[in-house]
Amino acid sequence: MTMRALRRDERGLGALQWIGIVLAVLVLLSLIPQFRAAIDVLYENLVGKNNVGPNGEPQPGVLVRGIIVAVSSMVVFVGSILLINSTNLGRRLAFLVTGATFFGFMAVIGLLYSLYAPRGLRPESLEGLILPGAMMIGSLILFAMFLTAMNRYEAEQSGD
């Protein structure tokens, strides 16, 4: 790959970086009470109020709000780190470094949850370990893939 092609490829912000910037701006705007009230009214018109049903079960609005909060917080977390890394490392290497660190972090969290999950002293069954174990193994596989990709990227850059 020539230096000219590399410069053209590294120029500008990627889609994930733009999403991170937009969501970071929305987070800052949510600190303004009027903006937050307008978002709450819009949300209640689209999904409904976050109340409990007549039998005590949560309404669908609670689930939707939980999904929105979880997904947007992960996108802001990863997107902001990717944006900061890309200013210093370039788009490709920043993506590889951010992916490797994120999946390494998820593997450690999966291991810690597997070891110290609130299952009691002697759990009767190990069903509670299926989800954190799967997350840990999947994250370890993706972590290894990102490390391999970084190794190939560095070999390509050094001309080996």
Question: Could you walk me through the main structural features you see in this protein, from its secondary elements to its overall organization?
Answer:
It is a single chain. The chain is mainly α and 160 residues long. α2 packs across α4. It has helices spanning 3-10, 15-29, 33-46, 60-89, 91-116, 130-158.
Helix content: over 70%
Shape verdict: flat
Overall structural class, as computed from helix and strand content, comes to mainly alpha
Task: Supply the number of helical segments.
Answer: 6
Got a strand count? 0
Name some characteristics of this structure.
160 residues; mainly alpha; single chain
How would you summarize the topology of this molecule?
Elements: H1 3-10, H2 15-29, H3 33-46, H4 60-89, H5 91-116, H6 130-158
Concise synopsis of the structure shown:
The chain is mainly α and 160 residues long. It has helices at residues 3-10, 15-29, 33-46, 60-89, 91-116, 130-158.
